[in-house]
Structure formats: C-alpha cells, structure tokens
Write a structure and sequence with these properties.
heterotrimer; A mainly alpha (317); B mainly alpha (417); C alpha/beta (517); A: 317 residues; mainly alpha; 1% strand; B: 417 residues; ABC transporter involved in vitamin B12 uptake, BtuC; 17 helices
C-alpha cells in the first residue's frame, strides 16, 4: 500500500504532461487534418522524420532551437507528400498514409547510415531543449498546478499554445470555418468559391508541422539523440486520442493526458516493482488502454462527414 | 465433337499445371532451366483458353493481362531511375550498384530472395485478403510474432514424426494467430473500433510479449548459455529442404516457398470462386448494398480478419520451422510492414502477391550483395522500394497522364485536318 | 403575376449565353445553346433528367468551363474561372441538393466564404445581425442560430436563397427547387420568388415539371438531349405542347392503371410498428397498414417522415422496437434480411448506387447477389459462374438492358439500365411481396414509363406491393390506395380517384384541419 502511495504524487502528474505532449501535438494535428476531410494515419512516420531531422540539425549546429525548427519544417514537408497523394492524386487516404509510414523508415535509415555511418542510434546532441526548461515566475509557485503546468520545457509550452490556438482557429477564424466546411460538405465550399483543395492541403500541412514538432520533442527535448523506432506507436495512439477526443483539440488533449497518465503510471510500476511480474507487462498497459479507448468511446462522436471521402472537381477543359 | 474439345481442354489444363509445378520447383531451387517449363505451361494455358473462348477472346485476355502488367513495370523502371539519380547525387556509381543488385538478387543469391519472399507471401496474402473485405490488417506484424512464438513453443515440445507434426504446427499456430486477431475483429463488429488502431496496438503488445516468451523458453540470461534466444526446436519439426531431392539447391533453402505459393493459389480460389469470397468482396466493395441483400457484415468482417490473422501467423511458422529453427528477439521483424507493400503492389490480388513478394525479396537479397561488393548503402534499396510503392499505388497519375496524352494526340489530328 | 408578352421584350437583356458547348469525355452535354434572360423576368428551363439543364447552369455559375461559347452579363462578356467570379458578378444559385453544412448554424452557412470581420477572425455579432435583417426584408422567417440539420427542408431552401441574397445576387438560379417540397411549401416558395422579382432580381428556374412552368414562369426554354428545341412565352403554350418538345414525341402523361376489384385477405400486414431513427427518436410511431395480393399501396410523404426507417425495418436492416410485420401469416418482424429474401419478399431500394448494386461487380454478380447462398447460383461452396452468366443473359434480354455483356461492371451502365438490373434481380425470383422505394429517381421519361409498366405487371401477377415515393405524380399513377405518412404515423388514407395532389399535400404537412374548411 505504501508503495502505491509513493507513486501517486505531483511527480506523476508532471510526468503525465511530459509523456502526453507528443501525443497531444500529433493528435491535434490529426484532428485538424481530419476536420478538413483527409484521414492521416502517417503521424508515426512524420514524427520519425521530425525527430530525425531535429536531431541532425541540433547536432551539427549545436543549437537545439534550430533543431526544433528543422523538426517542424521537415514534418511539414514530408506531410505534403500525403497531401499531394490524397488531394491531387485522389489516392486512398489510408493507403497513402501507410505508404508514407513505410517511406519514412527507409528515408531515415538511409540518411542515418549516410550521416552517422551506422543504423540504430545517433550520436548525442550537445544541448537538448530540456536545458531550456523555464519556470514561469509566480505561476510556477502555485501548489500542485505550478510544477505541472508552469515549470516545463519549451515544446510542452508550445503544445499548450497549440491547444488554445487551434481551438480558436476552428471556432472563430475564417480559415477555420472554411476548413471545417471542407471536411463536412466540400461541394458546398467549392460552390461559393473557396478552394477545397487548398483547405485540405492546409489541414494536412498543419498535421505535418505538429507531428514534426512531436517528433522533435521525442528526440531533442525528452532525450538527446535519435533512435530508430523511438516513436513506438505514439502516432497511432494519437489517432486514438483524436477519435476519443471527438475530433476536437481540447478533447484530443484530454485523451492524450489519459494515455500519458497510463504511460507514466506504467513506468513507475516498473521502478517500484509493486508486483513481481515481467516489466513488459507494464509496458503494454498503454497499448491496451488505447484499444479500450477506441472500442468504448468511438460511438459517442462522429467524424467530419466528408472525412476520408475523395473530392474531385470536374474542372476539365 | 464437343467431347473431343472438352477432352483437349482438360488435357491442356492438366499439362499447364504439371509443367508449371515442376518448372516452379526447379526454378526456385536455382535450376534456372525450369523457366522453360513454366513458359511451356503459359503456352499450354493460352491454348486451353483458345479452345474455351475462341482465338479472339484468348488473345484479348493476353493483351489485357500485359496491359495490367505495364503499370507496375513502368513504376519499377521509374523507381530504379530515381534511385540511380540519388546514388549519383550522393556519390555512388549507379551502374555498378545496379548490376550487383540484380545479379545478387536474381542469380547468385537467388535462394536468399526466395527465403526472404516466403514469409512475405504469407503476410502479403494476409493484408491483401483483408483489403478485399475493405479492412486494413496493419497489425500483421503482431500476428507474425504470434506465429513465431506458437510454432517455437510447439516445435520445442512435440515429438511426433514430421509428416504429422509439421502440418499440425501449421494449423495450430496459424489458428492461434487467427485467434489473436479475434479481439480486434470482435471490437470492429460490435463497436466499430477501427482495425488500423486495434491491430496496430495488438502488434505492439505481441512484440513486447516475445522477450517474455524467449526468456521462458531457454533464453533467460540468468540461466541460459544462449541468452535472448530460445532453444532449438526438434529436428522432426524442421521443414524439408530442397536439397533433400535436388542436390544442387542451396543448403538453407526450405520448401516453405512451395507451401506459400500453394497457399496463394488457395486464397485466390477462396476469394474468387467460392461464395465466401463473393460475400467478402461484396462487403469490401459496398457494404450497404451487400447488407441490403442479406449478406452479414459482421460475419464477413470477422471471417476476413481471422483468416488474415491465420495467414500472417503462417509467415512466422515458416520462418521458425524452415529457416531459423528457434526464436530470438526481433527475428526478422519487418515482414508485417513489407507485407503491406507487397499486397498493395499486387493490387491486393493473391496471385500477384507471389510475384511482388519475390521482387521484394530479391531487392533485399540483391541489396545486401550490392552493399558487400560495391559499398553502396543498402538503404538505397529501401528508397527504391518506397518509390515503386508510391508510383504503383498512385494509379491515378496514369489515368490522368494517359488521358492528357490522348487529348493532345486527337487535338493534333484535328489540327492536321 | 405574369407579365404581358410585350412588356418582356421592352426590357433589357441582363444575361445572354451564346453558342455554349460543353463536352465531357463520354457525352456532349450542351450543344450550341443560346439563351437570353430579360431583367425582372422568371425564366424556366424545361427538360427531362439528363437533358443537360444542370450542366448548363453549372457552366453559367462557373463550376464548369464551357468547351466553347460566351457568356454576357448586361452586354459585357464575362469569363468565370470559378463560382467566386460568378458570385461577384451578381449570380446566385440554389442547387437541387443543398450546399449546406449540416452541423453548422444558419448564419455560418450563409456567411461561409464572405465572413465579416477583420484579421481573419469572424465577427459573429455583425453576421447574425445582417442575416436577421436580410431574413426579415424578404419575409423568409429564418432563425440565424438554428443548426441546419435540425430545420425543415423548406427552411433549408430559404437559407440557400439567403446565401445568394447575402452576396447581393441580381440573377438567381433555382435548380429543381420543388423536388423536395410539399405542395404548400411550393406555394410559399413561389410567393418568395415573386417578392424577389419585385425587388429587381431576375430568376431562372430549372425544372422538369410542366405544372410549375405554367404556374410561375414568364418564358420557357425547352432543352432536349443537350439542345434547345424551343423557346416560348409561357401563356402561349400548353402542357402537351411542352411535353412534346421536351421528349420529342407524343407523351402519355399518365400510365394506365386498370382499377381492380380485390378479393381475399391482406397478405402483408404491419401492426403498431415502432422504429427508432439513428439519433434515438421514434421515427415510426405505432404504424399500421395492410396490403392485399395484387394491390399497390403508395406511401406519400415529405422526405424524413419515416420512409427510410419503414423500408429498412421491413427489409430487416433496422431494429423493430415494438409491433409486428406479418407476411402470409408468418411473423417476419426482426427476421434477418436473408430470411426475408427467402420468404419471397423483394426490395427495390431508393438509392441504387448505395443500396442496390455493387458497382464494381459484374451484372451477373449483381443479379446473383442475395441469392448466392443457394443453388443453382452455387455448387457446393463454389460459385456457379456458368449458371449466373446464363441467367443474367436471359434477364438482360427480358428486361431490355442495354449492355455490351453480362460481365460488364454495373457501374458502366446508365441509371435507367442499372435500375433495370435491380428490377430484373428482384422480379425474376417471383416475389410475392415487393417493397419499391423511389424507383424512378433521376431517370428520364422513357425509363420511368418502362419501370412503371413493370411494376404494374407485377401487380397483375398478384404481388402485394408497397410503394414509397416522394413524387406525388408517381404515387397517383400507380397506387390503388394512398397512405399519407406524417411524422411516423399514417394520418390519412385515400383512393387516388377520390382526391388530388393538393389535398394529399396538405396531409403530408400535417394540415389535417383542411377537412373542416
């Protein structure tokens, strides 16, 4: 019993935020993408790309902020392939996403060997973003909430900004309204002169930028190097978070917290060794939770009406 | 007169089968003249078609078939050119590299290509079959792991003669892998939970289960002389080798490829000739119309995911019983993922999967040979594969380009007039 | 308020389409079309389904580019790259299938693309006020905060009109506006249209209904197979003349249905059926009806009053909460679709692409579907393709289905031929009950005639037939008895000879008080 209580403390909640951040970012990205009508299962691959390029740039420039930028941009660029495939080439969204995932492994492996000479793990970067942890003066002193929300590392703060910004984006901004229409009734949007194609490209791009940021978090903020496969299914958990969150940024955040919590808990159980079982059984806990989440909650909300459906304009000469 | 015709047709079909099978066995074992037997099979098949449908229809079939092949062929060529460009840009010699790639994959290390292709055929079939039902069995990797573990477990414990134990392990291990997909299947039917997420999660779970299994079966670092590797399975459960009856075959080449090809033919039969396949395809193409005509969506989704799990599990079985004879962590991981490419490339056609799997296997084998002999990094092969995949799958480009080319041609004709 | 002939010509031409040609890969949709629209008039564009009317308007609205030809607004040539250009030049369009986003509010839909506000942020306050003002100015009575999926079809159409007015449309195009309206709503719409004309808007109405052309338009162009076959001042033409020009031959405006004396007991009975819709509310509230063999019972009603749920419940596709469905003395409530098929209950669904056919499957496979679990379509577990092809060939001939072969994917056929495939499938298994829903939606006159005659044929064979249709004309033409479905209940029963469309229309919208007037 004592062991149990030693786990439940503020530390746990701080870790929850830390572990849920990449999922939050990727899930918000996926939400925006699907709101525009494009299904994106390639978050995993985009995160890998973002994580890798963030590491490479941070390694060679010695500046982790440059690494962060590289992670974001590389994620965005890579996601444009998905946009091109689904919007312009009218390819099946799921297939394109799967292809992108496969492509990302190959690209990263090739570049790893080329740049670092060997697959596996890169050399550590000189300075990670964790070094830039910032305790907001005043707010970080609040008991319990302080250390959790106001004494964090850069990308975590960025994720908070993302939650607020994208909620506002969808509800109150013109572009957000157009994006939502593109995912619900694309023809309606097209007939009043707004380009559905552009909106969908934007949706995919946003998911790419955010997933790239999520990847950068994994490699240069939560860690100081890149390892192949370090995303470990988080891209797919983000999908589950999007669904459980009802296709809404705040919902995605709450769902991501849930998964982050499970992950944080699982790590602590491993350390504390409450029960004498192989550590792998703890590691799989978040994955099981994910399955439960999609099975239990998926009925409650519906995806955008035109989600996953191709939209083609007969603008032939 | 009619009876004579039917007699001729059956004779030709029988000849096709015999020639194809013998030719295949020989070619696979690197007796490359087996190719001529297979060519003979194709010819006799053509003649049987001629008898059945007439000369014009048979020729139409041939033309249509070649046309269908042209798309993947173009994709492969473009991808190779693209790969060559990347090699040039990063300072490697594409000509040397490609020569090594093809020589290694299709001649010198042909047996490695076949060994690589065998499990790919099974996972490719798994994913292709599920796709035909409109489902994405992305977690095939997990079912592969279950196949690995189940067949290792059984192989360590069953002392029966090979003729009994090998089929037994195939069936039971396959069934366990199928059962592993039952939860995602059930959740899909009852709650609509997307199989991409559930099978993916189960795949991660299976992967984490494998170290526990390995430790419990002879790989515990505390007690074992071979840490992180299981004990070797009994020789009675090892798959026969080609060398047992074709002396010049490579000593590692097991007959798993024949089982895989036979399975592909079987899957093709199920999908296109039986009522089960009919229902599954109807559900995959239009589940609303299927349902309105009395086809049960739930039953077919369940059947499809379970059978897909079975097929992916068999891929693990052949790996253990045929090649490694034991299990270790991350034993050739990646068959699940590559299975997706193989299936998509084959247009989700079971027979096509045979060829795309062999292509993929050859690219891998050739890639390793290329790296050893020309120092070009192996991962360029991954990029080539990615590009092939992307191009084949983006079929729309062809239709659009094809359409534009036609328009330009007809416009030019109009101008000329 | 129709204008005199002379008055129309003395006004200016606000829109002219000259020599418009629109060619698609497989079809010439518009062939050298010339149209003039005078300011302040109501112009009708008449033609049957597939004549090219919608294509022409999509060209005008900038959704398509014409293969050749010019468009002139107030004498100036204009080229539209997209609807945005057309809208900016004062064109507005109310599409047949509404371009409204279901889960957004009325206001959001109206302002979409033209939102007030600075810096990319939407100023909802101003938007709501503007929408409200506009709605009051034109007496449209729309609630700015209502969510689209919660308001009636008639109101949704008004939102579409408001969308155009919000963008200051001077020319309003209405594409088949009355297709989804009750007779009362049609009257209301025409009042709105006349109000708009008084404020200086010119109107083009696209329709295939002769009644409407006569009632509301000043002039009419007739379109047939992509070409203009005539232009008249409406008072100068009669309905038979219009029908003739529309179809190119003498049209039999009604199919003859011989009245029958029906003996015997009903074989198909529904008792107190309660069925819920997707969002959990009761779509059918204790519905009852019965049908005798050889009788056609027509369900008239506005879309969304329970028709879909009724059809699905009968077919075994939707759960029955309470009540019974009986056929030939057996309780088939909640039976599986497979059993229902086995009991010889046939189904022609309302959406042939979604529920009727698997488009990539061949004609033969589609014909076998539903009956593919029993011989002779199968032999053991194998499909008997030889039998399937022979049977399909036989049916293709019997139903005059235009196709190069039975192995052609169903998606390659025209709409009428696709519907024939469905009929062939269902009718060839000698059903004793038929559920027919919207059988002629989107089809041309020829196909409609054929399908109606086939249905009457089944009636001759003593099949009990339940017809669900949103087209009153069809209901009147085919039914022996008409039942009006309103909000999940049968509110009135008629014999077609003893009533008319207006009266039925009244009950379709719940206006039971009409009897007492």
């Amino acid at each position: 019993m004592e062991g149990l209580f030693s786990i439940l403390n503020t530390e746990l909640l701080v870790a929850t935020i830390r572990l849920s951040t990449p999922i939050t970012l990727a899930a918000i990205g996926a939400t925006i993408c699907e709101k525009s009508g494009i299904v994106n299962i390639a978050m995993e691959g985009i995160m890998i790309i973002g994580a890798f390029f963030a590491t490479v740039v941070a390694y060679y420039t010695g500046n982790p902020w440059a690494g962060l930028l590289a992670g974001i941009i590389s994620g965005g660029l890579f996601s444009l392939i998905h946009a091109f495939a689904t919007v312009t080439l009218h390819l099946d969204h799921t297939v394109s996403g799967a292809v992108l995932n496969i492509l990302s492994f190959g690209i990263v492996r090739y570049l790893m060997v080329l740049i670092f000479g060997h697959p596996g793990t890169t050399n550590p970067i000189p300075v990670g973003l964790k070094a830039y942890q910032w305790a907001i003066p005043g707010l970080s002193r609040i008991p319990v909430l302080g250390p959790i929300f106001f004494n964090q590392t850069p990308i975590v703060y960025l994720s908070f900004v993302a939650i607020i910004f994208f909620t506002f984006f969808l509800k109150r901004m013109k572009v957000g309204l157009h994006l939502r229409a593109a995912g619900e009734h694309p023809l309606a949007l097209e007939t009043i002169g707004v380009s559905v194609y552009k909106m969908r490209y934007l949706g995919v791009l946003i998911s790419g930028l955010l997933s790239g940021m999520a990847g950068a978090y994994l490699s240069i903020e939560n860690n100081v190097s890149f390892t192949e496969g370090m995303t470990n299914g988080k891209g797919f958990i983000a999908l589950a978070a999007m669904i459980s969150g009802g296709w809404h940024p705040i919902g995605a955040f709450l769902a991501a917290l849930f998964f982050g919590f499970a992950d944080a808990l699982q790590i602590r159980f491993q350390i504390i060794k409450l029960i004498n079982v192989p550590e792998e059984l703890f590691i799989i806990f978040p994955y099981i939770l994910c399955v439960v989440a999609v099975a239990g909650l998926v009925r409650r909300s519906r995806p955008p009406k035109a989600d996953g459906k191709d939209f083609m304009i007969e603008r032939v000469e | 007169m009619n009876n004579l015709r039917i007699g001729k047709e059956t004779l030709l079909l029988a000849a096709t089968v015999v020639l194809a099978v013998i030719g295949l066995i020989l070619y696979v074992a690197a007796y490359f003249w087996g190719f001529f037997l297979m060519a003979g099979a194709a010819v006799s098949y053509y003649f049987s078609l001629r008898i059945k449908n007439g000369r014009e229809a048979a020729w139409e079939d041939v033309r249509g078939f070649l046309k269908k092949l042209s798309i993947p062929a173009i994709g492969i060529v473009v991808a190779i050119v693209f790969g060559g460009l990347i090699m040039l840009l990063t300072g490697y010699n594409p000509l040397k590299a490609f020569r090594a790639l093809f020589y290694g994959g299709f001649v010198r290390n042909w047996h490695v290509s076949i060994l690589n292709a065998t499990p790919l055929i099974f996972t490719g079939l798994s994913i292709a079959f599920a796709f035909n039902a409109g489902l994405f069995n992305i977690g095939a990797e997990g079912q592969y792991y279950i196949g690995l573990m189940a067949s290792t477990w059984l192989g360590l414990r069953l002392g029966l003669p090979p003729i009994i134990v090998i089929p037994f392990i195939f069936v039971v291990a396959g069934a366990l892998a199928a059962a592993y997909n039952a939860v995602p299947a059930f959740l899909k039917v009852k709650t609509g939970a997307h199989e991409v997420i559930t099978t993916m999660m189960f795949a991660h779970i299976a992967r984490y289960m494998s170290p526990i299994f390995i430790r419990a079966n002879g790989g515990d670092p505390a007690t074992s002389t071979h840490a992180y590797v299981t004990d070797v399975i009994g020789e009675n459960t090892w798959l026969p080798m080609f060398r047992d009856f074709l002396p010049r075959a490579n000593y590692r080449l097991h007959i798993g490829i024949l089982i895989a090809i036979a399975t592909a033919v079987f899957v093709h039969y199920i999908l296109y000739k039986t009522k089960f396949g009919f229902e599954i395809r109807a559900v995959g193409e239009n589940k609303d119309a299927a349902r309105a005509q009395g086809i049960s969506i739930g039953v077919n989704v369940f059947r499809a995911l379970l059978f897909a799990g079975f097929l992916a599990g068999l891929s693990g079985v052949t790996e253990v019983l045929g090649l490694s004879h034991k299990m270790f962590e991350n034993l050739n991981a990646g068959y699940g993922w590559n299975g997706i490419s193989v299936a998509l490339l084959a247009g989700n056609n079971p027979l096509g999967v045979i060829f795309t799997a062999i292509l993929w296997g050859a690219l891998d084998a050739g890639g390793q040979y290329m790296t050893r002999t020309t120092q070009t990094p192996n991962s360029i092969v991954e990029i080539i594969k990615g590009v092939i995949l992307f191009l084949i799958v983006a079929r729309y480009i062809y239709t659009v380009l094809g359409g534009k080319l036609k328009k330009r041609r007809s416009a030019a004709v109009k101008e000329a007039k | 308020m129709t204008l005199k002939k002379g008055a129309a010509e003395s006004r200016s031409v606000c829109l002219e389409m000259k020599n418009i040609v629109k060619r698609f890969p497989r079809v010439l949709a518009n062939n050298n079309i010339n149209i003039k629209l005078y300011e302040g008039e109501i112009l009708a564009l008449l033609g049957e389904n597939g004549a090219g009317k919608s294509t022409l308007m999509n060209v005008l609205y900038g959704l398509y580019r014409p293969t050749s030809g010019e468009i002139f607004l107030d004498g100036q040539e204009v080229v539209f790259q997209s609807p945005k250009d057309a809208i900016s030049k004062g064109l507005g369009m109310v599409h047949q299938h509404f371009m409204l986003v279901d889960n957004l509010t009325v206001t959001e839909n109206i302002i979409l693309g033209n939102e007030p506000g600075k810096g990319g942020v939407i100023d909802y306050k101003t938007a709501r006020a503007e929408v409200k003002a506009l709605s009051e100015k034109y007496h449209l009575g729309v609630d700015p905060d209502a969510v689209i999926e919660n308001i009636s079809v008639g109101l949704q159409q008004r939102v579409e009109i408001l969308k155009a007015l919000y963008r200051k449309a001077k020319i309003l195009i209405l594409d088949e506006p009355t297709a989804v309206l009750t007779p009362q709503e049609v009257d209301d719409l025409f009042k709105v249209v006349k109000t708009l004309v008084e404020t200086g808007v010119s109107i083009i109405i696209i329709t295939h209904k002769l009644e409407e052309v006569k009632e509301i338009s000043d002039r009419v162009y007739i379109l047939r197979r992509g070409e203009i076959t005539g232009v008249h001042s409406t008072p100068d033409v009669t309905k038979p003349m219009l029908a003739n020009e529309m179809v190119g031959r003498e049209v039999v405006l009604t199919v003859t249905r011989e009245p029958k004396k029906l003996t015997g007991d009903p074989t198909f009975i529904i008792q107190d059926l309660v069925v819920k819709s997707d969002n959990g509310i009761e779509a059918l509230k204790k519905l009852s009806l019965d049908i005798r063999p050889g009788e056609i019972v027509g369900i008239a009603g506005v879309d969304g009053n329970g028709q879909t749920e009724l059809a699905e419940a009968i077919r075994g596709l939707r759960k029955v909460e309470a009540g019974q469905v009986l056929f030939q003395g057996q309780d088939v409530t909640g039976s599986s679709t497979r059993d229902i098929i086995r009991k010889k209950m046939g189904y022609v669904p309302s959406d042939r692409h979604r529920f009727g056919l698997v488009l990539p499957f061949s004609i033969a496979e589609n014909i076998a579907m539903g009956y593919h679990t029993d011989p002779p379509n199968i032999r053991g577990i194998n499909m008997n393709f030889r039998y399937m092809d022979e049977e399909a060939q036989r049916l293709v001939e019997a139903f005059d289905i235009r196709t190069p072969g039975t192995n052609v994917p169903a998606g390659n056929l025209s709409g009428g031929n696709q519907q024939k495939v469905i009929l062939a499938r269902e009718f060839s298994h000698e059903p004793e009950f038929l559920l027919v829903s919207q059988p002629t939606r989107g089809l041309d006159v020829g196909a409609i005639e054929y399908i109606h005659s086939q249905i009457l044929n089944m009636r001759e064979k003593n099949v009990a037939i339940l017809l669900i249709s949103l087209e009153l004309e069809e209901i009147f033409a085919l039914s022996d008895r008409i039942l009006v479905l309103y909000e999940g209940e049968i509110v009135k029963q008629f014999r077609p000879e003893e009533t008319n469309e207006t009266e039925v229309g009244l009950f379709m919208t719940g206006g039971k008080g009409a009897e007492n007037e």
